[in-house]
Amino acid sequence: MKIVFMGTPDYAVGALEALIRAGHEITAVVTQPDKAKGRSGNLQYPPVKECALAHGISVFQPERIKRPEAVAQLRTYEADVFVVAAFGQILSREILEMPAYGCLNIHASLLPRYRGASPIQHVIIDGEERTGITIMQMDTGIDTGDILYTKEMSIDRQDTCQTLYGKLTALGGQAIVEALELLQQGALTPEKQRDEDSCYAPIITKEMGRIDFAKDALSIERLIHGMNPWPSAYTFYQGKQLKIWDALAQEDVSDTEPGTIVSVDRQDFTVATGRGSLRALEVQLEGKKRMSAHDFLLGVRLTPGEKLG
Length: 309
Hints:
By secondary structure, the chain is of the alpha/beta class. Helices cover 26% and strands 26% of the residues.
């Protein structure tokens, strides 16, 4: 098929590479404009642009995809279908109806669950056991279009946003290739989403990473994993921010005030929570590098009874 591909981050690169390997003709890649990075202000290409250029594919980077000049440019590309993966701009009805097969979105959840910008983080934070990829026929709503194809996978307790992101990136590539093959065969049956079964995954903010030790230990463990690698889950120790990158919830019973350090050994330290306790395994004190709890304790003398938060 002839495809215009729209995407921006690493997550979209997996799908673009899979479509190229499958022999589809990518007539153009549409991505966000280059952004300045760091103190130097040098412009950095979006990952999808880097991939497209490596394959000799034409790249279009509109500031606003809905503007008349951008729409006119899209019409110059031959395409049976537009494939969208984390593009970062909302498409108008005019664009959605442009190709013969419309616009297909590669969404990183099992719709209608976790519509929105941050499904990968939220499935971990909420303790879901399964997630997956939904290939959706896009409409003018936010992730509300008909479901065309899904692929499921389990979530491991040790999964962080980073590890699950990688797994879903690969799964998204598989799903879109399989879905397009079925689409060409006329073998896909659109399924309306049940709005009553939906939930929303709002964009993640730094404030959401602050740990409330009054919550149960397992919920805090999930928050830590869901916020890894960005923006991280954090608390405070002696007035400095302390990021916790990895931790293990324990189901012990204690009446110690939440946030209190209850034990310290050579390898890690344990903090009381509202239910159970939390073993900190990997941390980062403000101004320091990310390190194991063991290395952290070589330089910081924690004592039971001290408080975090």
